[in-house]
Specification:
The chain is of the alpha/beta class and about 500 residues long. The protein is about 35% helix and about 15% strand. InterPro entries: AAA+_ATPase (IPR003593), CHLI-like (IPR045006), MCM_dom (IPR001208), Mg_chelat-rel (IPR004482), Mg_chelat-rel_C (IPR025158), Mg_chelatse_chII-like_cat_dom (IPR000523), P-loop_NTPase (IPR027417), Ribosomal_Su5_D2-typ_SF (IPR020568).
């Protein structure tokens, strides 16, 4: 006999697609077949489902059993099909009526004893339910907080197959789950804060601009000057994610399987710091079943690359397109998948292999050819995508030993939040979150300059101090500096400061 379908989902990147699980029980020799482009994990579900149904006290069909995962042209991957397939079989067997599964989405992995285990991609089920205007979402108990990120849905946390079936038969009710309130991490929890770093006022000013406009930054200087500490203090300056940013970030983390049990929305910008031995696939994503890479896991947060020239040049060149477009496109024969990758790139580097090429107090032991080869590991187009290149000089001993109270991360973060709020109000209708995202077509609209500021930019273009991309970059940085000062128009001092973060830098020559 043929049953009505049970609704679940497939994930194309982070995009959920509705999948309908159909069960057909017909006479013949015992056979359990799953069709509809299932992968190995889905095919292996047959043994888990058979044991789970039997150990939950339900009879398993001893005839020909066919499961269809529709649409049949979409690849199915993952263990969360266990529960909807088991429910489709029990529905076909008449254990409960089809009216009980209407307006519901199911997902979950089954243990051999019938328990329901946590899965990845739960937020996708909630987003799909919102899109389909479905009221109920049944997920493993450990994943309810993730699904509760979408309001106006009834989220049910199921612990076992027998309990879920009793709920569907209205014999034992599973109450809807409730959201646990989350708070922002206290500043004391961050490993490094701005007040932990002595001196380096110029670099700290650059970091504030970086955080305020989500601009890419490269910190350059001799060893021991605090470059890495400055970069690691950057997360403490960023404001909390907006709701839409949290949804995007959590969706990526959910698909990647890095969310903790019972974790809800990610409200803090992610901070990713891959090792320099990382491959291109690890950095930008990919694989036979494409998964998000570090650039996507850092979406709406920070991707930190310490000692940038130590990374393979081939790997670093893969960053150019995501830095420009804010997304990663992975093409395969069967389909093309896109992952968001709007990240703030923070990197550090020494001026030469020994690190002392620009140090007035240490003698550099590198030959010119060694320095040339070292800097050639970074291509000009990649360096041109850094909005700010900040020199971090060796700290004066008096400044290092000074007891002067440093400005705290909390104080700077308040100013950053104010600047971000100004940007979001100005560009809300365009769907832009920060100044770094302003496209060339809207540059004149959002980066209005006074006469003197425009003249300074024209002079920089005439003298070929900046490229076309450099012109747009200077406008965006100046717009951020103006927002920090709550100015409506970009003035000459804003442009002058924006230009000096690239002007005359030895890396660009």
């Amino acid at each position: 006999m043929y049953s009505k379908h049970v609704t679940t989902l497939a994930l194309c990147g982070i995009q959920p697609i509705p999948v309908f699980v159909e069960a057909d029980i017909s006479p013949g020799l015992p056979q359990f077949q799953i069709v509809g482009l299932p992968d190995a994990m889905v095919k292996e579900a047959r043994d888990r489902i058979r044991s789970a149904i039997k150990n939950s006290g339900f009879p398993f069909p001893r005839t020909r059993l066919t499961i269809n995962l529709a649409p049949a042209d979409v690849k199915k991957q993952g263990t969360f099909y266990d529960l909807p397939i088991a429910l489709a079989i029990l529905l076909a067997e008449g254990e409960f009526s089809k009216e009980m599964i209407l307006d519901s989405i199911f997902m979950g992995e089954l243990a051999l004893n019938g328990d329901i285990r946590s899965v990845t991609g739960t937020l996708g089920a909630a987003l799909l339910a919102q899109y389909l205007k479905t009221k109920n979402v049944f997920v493993p108990k450990e994943n309810v907080q993730e699904a509760l990120a979408i309001p106006s849905l009834s989220i049910f946390g199921a612990s076992s197959l027998i309990n879920l079936v009793l709920h569907l038969k209205k014999e034992q009710v599973i109450p809807p789950a409730h959201k646990i309130k989350q708070g922002r991490k206290a500043h004391s929890v961050y490993p490094i804060l701005l007040e932990d770093i002595k001196g380096q006022a110029h670099a700290k000013r650059g970091l504030e601009i970086t955080a305020s406009g989500a601009h890419n930054v490269l910190l350059k200087g001799p060893p021991g000057t605090g470059k890495t500490m400055l970069a690691r203090a950057l997360p403490s300056l960023l404001p909390s994610l907006t709701y839409q940013e949290s949804i995007e970030t959590t969706s990526i983390a959910s698909v990647a399987g890095i969310l903790k049990s019972n974790q809800g929305l990610i409200i803090e910008p992610p901070f990713r710091h891959p090792h320099h031995s990382s491959s291109a696939t690890a950095l930008v994503g990919g694989g036979s079943w494409p998964k998000p890479g570090e650039v996507s896991l850092a979406h709406r947060g920070i991707l930190f690359l310490d000692e940038l020239p130590e990374f393979s040049r081939h790997v670093l060149e893969h960053l150019r397109q995501p830095m420009e477009d804010g997304e990663v496109t992975i093409s395969r024969v069967a389909n093309t998948i896109q992952f968001p990758a709007r990240f703030l790139l923070a990197a550090t580097m020494n001026p030469c292999p020994c690190g002392f090429a620009d140090d007035p107090k240490q003698t550099c032991t590198c030959t010119p050819s060694m320095i040339h080869h070292y800097r050639k590991r970074l291509s000009g187009p990649l360096l041109d995508r850094f909005d700010l290149i900040i020199e971090v000089p060796r700290l004066d001993p008096d400044a290092f030993c000074s007891s002067h109270v440093q400005e705290t991360s909390k104080e700077v973060q308040k100013r950053v939040e104010k600047a971000r709020t100004i940007q979001q109000k100005r560009m809300k209708k365009a769907g832009i979150f920060s100044n770094a995202e302003i496209p060339a077509s809207l540059l004149d609209t959002f980066c209005k300059k006074d006469t003197e500021a425009s003249e300074i930019l024209r002079q920089a273009l005439r003298q070929q101090r900046i490229s076309a991309r450099g012109y747009a970059r200077a406008c965006k940085i100046a717009r951020t500096i103006a927002d920090m000062e709550e100015c409506e128009y970009i003035s000459a001092p804003h442009i002058a400061e924006a230009l000096q973060y690239k002007e005359g830098n030895s890396l660009m020559t």
